[in-house]
Amino acid sequence: MLYSLLRPALFLLDAERAHHLSLAGLKVMPQLSRATPGGPLASTVAGIAFPNPLGMAAGYDKDGEVPDALLGLGFGSVEVGSITPLPQAGNPQPRLFRLAEDRAVINRMGFNNYGAEAAVARLAARLGRPGVLGINLGANKDSPDRIGDYAIMAQLMAPLASYLAVNVSSPNTPGLRALQDKGALAALLDAVLAARGPNAVPVFLKIAPDLEPADIDAIARIAIDRKLGALIVSNTTISRPALASRYKDETGGLSGAPLRELAQQRLRDFRKATGGAIPLVGVGGIASAEDAWARIRAGASLVQLYSAMVYQGPGIARRVTRGLEALMRRDGFASIAEAVGSE
Q: What separation in angstroms does the CA of 191 have from each of 57, 147, 152, 243?
């Protein structure tokens, strides 16, 4: 209710400025109660106990500044990042656009973040606190060895994370998506898995929705062979469905409502390609309990959102999780795990 009153004023601000303002607000807000471990929506994925299946996707808290505040909003997990070895400014502004008529966002941020050293100091200070924290790993734009960047990040972040997410699917770093190619991806994942050392936390892989059938099969096989913790399906899209906003032709990755059907289909494709042998995390266009439930029924063990919070505000996590519990009981399931892939 409060957010619906504040949103018109926030939408008068540049989208990136409003984003930073929201982070500042979370830093000073009172600590709220977290999702209850062992509750009706709890499940175990990749050996990690999630109190509910709804996570905050990477991209919102790029530098790991407010993971505990986000957990306090009711998210069952928070994925921070993408974080790169060295600080980088990202692409020139403006680079973040609200497509309000389409309930969508286009971004071309370019992995802007303060770098690994700052993130390690910040996240080390919260060690021992409860909550599932994923750390999304990226490579510097001008790095001569991007696989080496990911290995360095895995070594640094493994002691601080519940899981590591390897992001090779952002469209905003030139050449990055080429790391989804079969040979490059295998070499990259081998380097990341080895670099974790004794902190062998699960490794998730975040992929693009803009893939050909052969790419899907190859990625699925590599993920299974390397015993990844999960596949995150999917990142933003470079495709452009019919859009109404004046920002529709901006370069970058499209997220929000127009991504929903593509992301849902890609999840089904990976469910089929993996035969259910690896957990899937459904992302893209999720804005309601019904959206999340459809993704779970299609094969997702977990779901994430980000863009929908721009339009619905910080109360979205508790609304979605309350609705998920009601839908689970309505359809006769005793647990989220039981419902995965049941469509």
A: 24, 7, 9, 40
Backbone angles phi, psi at 300, to 5 degrees: -85, 130
Catalytic one of 77, 162, 169, 170: 170
Average pLDDT over residues 299-314: 97
Q: Is 307 a catalytic residue?
A: no
CATH of 2-339, one of 3.40.50.2300, 3.50.50.60, 3.40.50.10260, 3.20.20.70: 3.20.20.70
> 0.70 exceeded by the pTM?
yes
SS3 305: strand
Q: Which of 201, 204, 109, 187 is nearest to 156 (CA)?
A: 201
Q: Indicate the SS3 state at residue 321.
A: helix
Q: Is the per-residue pLDDT at 36 higher than 80?
A: no
The side-by-side arrangement of strands in the sheet containing 96-99 is 96-99, 104-107, 253-256
Q: How far is residue 19's CA from residue 23's CA, in Å, rounded to a whole number? A: 7
